[in-house]
Amino acid sequence: MFDIRAIRENPEEFDAAMKRRDKVAQSETLLGLDEERRLVQTALQELQQRRNEESKKIGEIKKSGGDAQEAMDAVAALKAEMGALGERERTVSNSLNQHLAGLPNIMADDVPDGADEDDNVEVRKWGEPSLEKVPEHYEVGEALGLMDAETAAKMSGSRFTLLKGGLARLERALGMFFLDVHTSEHGYTEMSPPLMIKDDAMFGTGQLPKFADDQFRTTRDDWLLPTSEVPLTNIVSGEIVDEGSLPRRYTAFTPCFRQEAGAAGRDTRGMIRQHQFYKVEMVSITKSDESEAEHERMTGCAEAVLKKLGLAYRIVVLCSGDTGFSARKTYDIEVWLPGQQRYREISSCSNCGDFQARRMNARCRKAGDKNTTFVHTLNGSGVAVGRALIAVLENYYDPADGGVFVPEVLKPYMGGLEKIVKV
Known about the structure:
By secondary structure, the chain is of the alpha+beta class. It contains 12 helices and 17 strands.
């Protein structure tokens, strides 16, 4: 949500920021609603004052033994007029708030302009991508007898996968490994959040109202967790936190649920786009002047686990046309998949500035200071477990027998297993 007063003070700057998002100028509509609302509020205040005056007359007339009917009729008429104006004020305010809630975050000045993912800008690379083509992850998993989409579809429909034996354990090992690194080396506090989320929490992080179609709703009208960014960020919702307690860093390993509403016909085989997947999330709550440095730090934390796994990757900064709704600036980490001979996203680290904090009313205060400021929020995958599993299957594939070597750092989580082979 945006501060309408800031838009009122500099509408040209706001419109320029929205146009970078490929949006038409918004200020005329917003300020028109704002002006109407303020006019109605002023009229209500004037009517309230007149009503008070007429009510005072009633008491004086009755006290002197006169007939107060005319004054009583005037009060009744004013009350009816106030009721109509009050309803109009609510309607205009709701319309203004809906318009504001549907607008994306203002991007950082250094976000490159561009139309879509083809215009994202590479920042750096790490590792040497293998140019030797290997089977794709689902071919490896199915040949091992440990990845079964057909049985999953029988139970749950498309975009689900049943993992067995060594691959099920490998998925669990990756999640535990990521958690251990982030908590023991990167200073994140492990959390175990709820998996069902209320409307207010989803609105606070920007999933609602715009992205309702990409979520799963339950029969009790809450939402299945789309990402643990939602509950972890909402820990500070409605709070005024001590500035001295910042930054706060949280991590969680959870299942996530998404409709993948816009993914029809894309990645229909395998585990790239699933309705259910596991992810280790990182969330930071910071002071406003520390979020840019925290963004670089968070991205480095996600990179660190890929380096430990020995997986080649690259970092790209998303262009204006590809930057997400709530983000001020986003780095994507793309891991090399030799089965596809291309980089694919495995983590997305975003600085949201105060955009989510305004929607959640999350603020901070210095000790002894009366004034408050909005916190800044950041989130990033640390990383997507399913996609890390895909990367391991393809990068550690052994063409000699179709098995998959276990990365050194995962062996303690796999009971010392050296290689996953066909059952």
